[in-house]
Design brief:
- The protein is an alpha+beta fold.
- It has eight helices and six strands; from the N terminus they run H-E-H-H-H-H-E-E-E-H-H-H-E-E.
- It has helices at about 15-20, 35-45, 50-75, 80-95, 100-110, 140-165, 170-180, 185-195, and strands at about 25-30, 120, 125-130, 135-140, 200-205, 210-215.
- The chain has a four-stranded antiparallel β-sheet. Strands 2-3 form a two-stranded antiparallel sheet.
- Strand 2 and strand 3 form a beta hairpin.
């Protein structure tokens, strides 16, 4: 994100326009410190996005259980190997995956036109984020931005495992399960955005660490 209008599409209102133009109404002002309540309230909503989030993680969990049982019964792996693959997958999916996840968010922002991209962390909430100052994006762009790490990391890990490392399937699936659970914030923000049927615009103010959401009046 950047302060200049040149990095944004001409048909997308900039932050100043959203604030001053009566055609746009502010529907939410969210402090970064309030992110956990926001995430939990929106991931619990009824809708396709929360259902998909629950469904995909349930499928991965059941796959791990069934694959572990099958591996023991067929002699593919013993209990020790299963334990260490699960432990390594949980660690990788909870900690090691954080840098590439955030870099993919940064790549998505770059593709949308942002240049002054900033990475941040809130240790107290264990939240990692990518943002930039007052760069406006639409609902569709927000969906692209939020889903890029989820889609790319799942595709990369599944492809690499199926092609070269099938013996580490349990590690890979447990990695993806943990990573996908940690994508809860990305799914929650999409759930919020899609709950509003009209045009929606959002930007972050990194100096005061707040996000703003606006909708177009009369639509």
């Amino acid at each position: 994100m950047t302060n200049t209008k040149s990095a944004q599409s001409s048909n997308i209102p900039d932050a100043e326009t959203l604030e001053k133009d009566p055609r746009y109404r502010k529907i939410l002002e969210l402090d970064f410190s309030e992110m956990i309540p926001f995430v939990l309230s929106n991931i619990r909503k009824r809708g396709l996005i929360p259902l998909f989030f629950l469904g995909i993680n349930t499928i991965f969990l059941f796959f791990i259980i069934l694959y572990a049982v099958w591996s023991v019964r067929t002699g593919q792996m013993n209990g020790g190997k299963i334990f260490w693959q699960l432990l390594a997958g949980i660690f990788a999916g909870s900690i090691l995956v954080i840098p590439p996840h955030e870099l993919f968010h940064g790549l998505a922002y770059r593709m949308l036109g942002a240049r002054n991209i900033q990475f941040g962390v809130d240790i107290e909430q264990f939240i990692f984020y990518v943002t930039a100052n007052r760069f406006t994006i639409t609902k569709r762009q927000l969906t692209f931005l939020a889903m890029t790490p989820f889609v790319l990391i799942n595709l990369l890990v599944i492809t690499l495992t199926a092609t070269w490392a099938s013996q580490f399937t349990l590690f890979s699936v447990s990695l993806l399960l943990c990573h996908n659970i940690m994508c809860i914030g990305d799914f929650a923000i999409i759930s919020f955005a899609l709950s509003h049927k009209g045009e929606l615009y959002t930007y972050d103010d990194t100096e005061i660490k707040r996000s703003y959401f606006f909708e177009r009046e009369g639509l």
